[in-house]
Amino acid sequence: MKEAADAVCDALLSSDDVIASKLDFTVSPNPALDIIKITSENLIHSINVIDINGQIVFTDNSTKAKIKTLDISSLPESFYFISIKDDQGNVAIEKIVKN
C-alpha cells in the first residue's frame, strides 16, 4: 500500500504540467541576435540563462517586473535555456536560440 502511495506522489510531483501551468511567460524573438524580451503574467523574481553544458552564463535578480529585457549579444551562438522564477516561487524553463 505504501509503495502505491509513493508511486502516485512521485508521478504527481514530477509532472511538467504542474509547473508549466503556474508560470506563463514568453520569450521573443526566438531565435535572437542580441536582445530578448521576457513577458510574464506574474512579477519576475529572477532569470538564469543556462548553456548546453548546464553552466549558468547570465543571472538577473534586479528590480521585479512583468517585462524584462536582456542583452545576450555577448553570448556565443548556441542553444540556451531561460529559467524564470516568479515572485510566488513558480519556476519555468524555455529553450532559446542565440544567432
Structure description:
There is one protein chain. With 99 residues, the chain is an alpha+beta fold. It has a single domain (23-98), classed as Immunoglobulin-like (Sandwich), CATH 2.60.40.1220. Helices cover 19% and strands 51% of the residues. The protein is built from two helices and six strands. It has helices spanning 2-13, 16-22, and strands at residues 25-28, 35-51, 56-60, 65-71, 78-86, 91-98. Strands 1, 2, 3, 4, 5 and 6 form a six-stranded antiparallel β-sheet that branches. β2 (35-51) and β3 form a beta hairpin. The protein is globular. Residues 1-21 have low confidence and may be disordered.
Low-confidence stretches: 1-21
CATH architectural category: Sandwich
How many structurally independent domains? Answer: 1
Structural class: alpha+beta
CATH topology: Immunoglobulin-like
Tell me the span between the first and last alpha carbons.
Answer: 52 Å
Strand content: over 45%
Summarize the structure.
With 99 residues, the protein is of the alpha+beta class. It has helices spanning 2-13, 16-22, and strands at residues 25-28, 35-51, 56-60, 65-71, 78-86, 91-98. Helix content is 19%, strand content 51%.
Compile the SSE list and pairings:
Blueprint: H1 2-13, H2 16-22, E1 25-28, E2 35-51, E3 56-60, E4 65-71, E5 78-86, E6 91-98
Antiparallel strand pairs: 1-2, 2-3, 2-4, 2-5, 5-6
Main features:
globular; 99 residues; Immunoglobulin-like; 2 helices; 6-stranded antiparallel beta sheet; 51% strand; single chain; alpha+beta; 6 strands
